[in-house]
Amino acid sequence: PILGAIFRGRARFFRFRRWAATIAVFTVFYYILTLRAMQVVFCRRIGKDDYMVAEPRQLCYTDGHMLPAVIAYVILIFVTLGMPLIMSSKLPKARDRLWDDPEYLAKFGILYESFKPEHFLFGACTFFVDIVLAMGKGIFPYTPIAQAISACFVLVVYILFLIFKRPFSSKLENFATMA
Predict the structure, then answer these.
(1) pLDDT range class, residue 73, cuts 50, 70, 90
(2) Which three-class secondary structure state does DSSP give residue 147?
(3) pLDDT at 49 > cutoff 60
C-alpha cells in the first residue's frame, strides 16, 4: 500500500510536468529548429533554376529536396508559428488563473511565471525575436553584413523594451537579459 501511494503520487506529479517538460524542450530547440527549417525552404534563383540557399548544389523542389522541404514547412507552421500563436491566444483567456491555479502553473508556468503579471505575454515576444533572427540568418547566409544589420536592429528594439518595461519579476533577470 505504501509503495502504491508513492507511485500514484509520482504519477500525479509527473502528469502535470509532462506539459512543462515538452514546452521546455521546444523552447530550448526553438531557434535551431526554426533556423534549420528556414535554411531548407529558402531558395535562390541562379540562372533559370532555384537552388537551396543553405546548399547551393541542391536544386529546390526536386526529388532530393521535397521530403526535407515538407518536414521544414511542418516545423515552420506547427513549431515556429504555432508556439507563439498558441501562447498569445491561450494565456490571455486564462489570465485569471495563471498564478492562482497550481495545476495550470505546473503545466504552463514555464512560459510566463518569471514575468510580472502585466507582462505575462513577453515569452511570446521572445519567440518572435528568435523568428526574426533565424530569418535574417536564413535569408542572408552569405552576406554577414546584412545578418549583422538585421540582428542588431531586432536586438536593439528588444533591449530597449527590456530597459523601459523591465518585464521580469526579478531585477537580476532583467539585468542578466539585457547584458
Answers:
(1) very high
(2) helix
(3) yes
